Amino acid sequence: MSSRPHPTTKQLLDQFSTEPDYSDPSPDEFEALSRDKVPVRSLAAEDLHAVVRIDRHGTGTDRIDYYRRKFEEALGDSGVRVSLVAEQDDMVVGFIMARVDYGEFGRAATSAVIDTIGVDPGMTGREVGRALISQLLANLASLRVESVRTEIEWNHFSLARFLERCGFRPGQKLALSRALA
């Protein structure tokens, strides 16, 4: 007789299972599908006030006129809608506004630009931003978009770290600007 305990069915299944668990929310794996935990859907016109509310928390200013223009562009002008919102308990808790460019500055490559991303301060650390980026990248890949870019304030360190964890790196372009007096 053996004194070793018999393995449970779960232990046997775990030992011989080769199917990966893509819903694993491992904190250091961007490929873990955060969007499995946080529902993400396409931006809709009725999301305007929720987006403005979230943005106001982050910026301290009410930019409703800016967002009205962005919503018109995202929902009306563009042929491909890629802007998204994240929800919890039927409430918008995050958003990402992006657009697809089919070439610029003499390049014919398809790329996307992330204009704005925001997460409700009460949802910080709950994978909302990851879910938004993950879903956006999946949607863009299905559209055969070749790259995604964004610009951030040079001293917005927390956003830079977040984007780095999502796989973003400094690009090879130098953006130049000049103030007009």
TrEMBL record:
Residues 1-31 are annotated as: Disordered. The keyword Acyltransferase applies. It holds the Pfam family Acetyltransf_1. Coiled coil: none annotated. Residues 1-20 have a biased composition (Polar residues). SUPFAM superfamilies: Acyl-CoA N-acyltransferases (Nat). PROSITE patterns: GNAT. Signal peptide: none annotated. One of its GO terms (molecular function) is acyltransferase activity, transferring groups other than amino-acyl groups. The keyword Cell membrane does not apply. Keywords: Acyltransferase, Transferase. Residues 38-181 form the N-acetyltransferase domain. This is GNAT family N-acetyltransferase.
